[in-house]
Amino acid sequence: MTEIPAHLAQPMAEDDREPLPLTGTERELLTAFLDWHRETLALKCAGLSDAELSSRPVPPSALSLHGLLRHLAGAERWWFRTQFAGEDVPMLHYSDDDPDQDFERLDGSVAEALAAWRGECDHSRRIVAATADLEATGTHRATGDPISLRRILIHMLAEYARHNGHADLLRERLDGTTGY
């Protein structure tokens, strides 16, 4: 592996995430951990240029930090708004004919992708806050079966954990920054 010279490594952004709770209700723990993972992604993107965020530094993979923002904005919308809340909203960066456009096309600016991702996270938080019971259900679109808010929160934790691992590798390859 090629080591990034120390003079190219960027200083890490200030980590201002709330510490993860050691105790709490199931809802408090699930939402705190999900927000922590959301902010981890933001920290992985902090301090990079648009060109760096859109670059694909681990060939032959099409992954980029810009693409991860687009993908996770779409995941937030799909799971919380479409599947759980039953909102009739268009998909972001996805179609049956072009399912990988979130990573491959990178239409629009990084600022637009970041704003869309933050907006979808905020919308998801409002849905969760307005739902009294984690056993409340939406409809799983693929099967027509009920899907609980608890299941969606757990799925999104796994989604962010997986993609934050990708973000770790991408950021390290871009400028040597590790951590968070």
Automatic annotation (TrEMBL):
InterPro entries: DinB/YfiT-like, MST-like
A Pfam family: MST
Region (Disordered): 1-20
Top-level taxon in the UniProt lineage: Bacteria
The protein's name in its UniProt record: DinB family protein
Organism of derivation: Kitasatospora sp. CMC57
